[in-house]
Amino acid sequence: MEYIWRDRKRTFLGLPLSFTVYSLTEEKFFIETGFFNKKEEEIRLYRIMDLTLNRSFGQRLFGVGTIHCCTADKSTPEFDIKSIKNSKEIKNMLSDMVEAQREAKNISTREFMDDEEGHEH
After folding, report:
1. How large is the C-alpha radius of gyration of the chain?
2. Where are the domains of the chain?
3. Whole-number Å distance between alpha carbons of 73 and 18
4. How are strands ordered across the β-sheet holding 21-24?
5. Percentages helix, strand, coil for the chain, rounded to the nearest 5?
6. Which of 11, 41, 78, 91 could form a disulfide with 31 if both were Cys (CB 3.0 to 4.6 A apart)?
7. Positive or negative CA dihedral for 26, 75, 49, 65?
8. Phi-psi bin for 34: left (phi > 0), alpha (psi -120 to 50), beta?
9. Model-level pTM?
């Protein structure tokens, strides 16, 4: 599997001292957490509906930010990409990749709204 981007959640002073790893491929986003007990979430990019960048004063001091994602994924309707470096650039890249995946699969936002109301497409 070829990763386009990988980073760890940053902790104190913006250092990557956590057991949360974020990975991005052409079609999927992964969140791996844990040290002894590992958990891996997988979200298909075309299912991401909305991205919001949040940067507190402390995060701005250490050059990190958090991207909040809303999805059409039933098991992971929302998730945060917490305290990552280059957060604005990563948000923009992720947004472009989400759009590219939707175009490649001929999926519109309307189809997700239909799914949430219980209709099939």
Report:
1. 15
2. 5-116
3. 26
4. 5-8, 21-24, 28-33, 39-44
5. 30, 35, 35
6. 41
7. negative
8. left
9. 0.86
**Cβ 52 vs Cβ 65: under 8 Å:** no
Average pLDDT for consecutive 10-residue bins of the chain (121 residues)? 94 87 97 95 96 96 96 94 97 97 84 52 41
Q: How far apart are the first and last CA of the chain?
A: 30
| Cβ proximity of 23 and 29 under 8 Å | yes
Return phi, psi of residue 67, to 5°: -105, 120
For the chain, what is the total number of helices (H) and then of strands (E)?
3, 7
DSSP state of 69: E
Tokens of 28: 């999927």
pLDDT at 40: 95
Among the listed residues 64, 58, 115, 118, the one whose alpha carbon sits nearest the alpha carbon of residue 87: 64
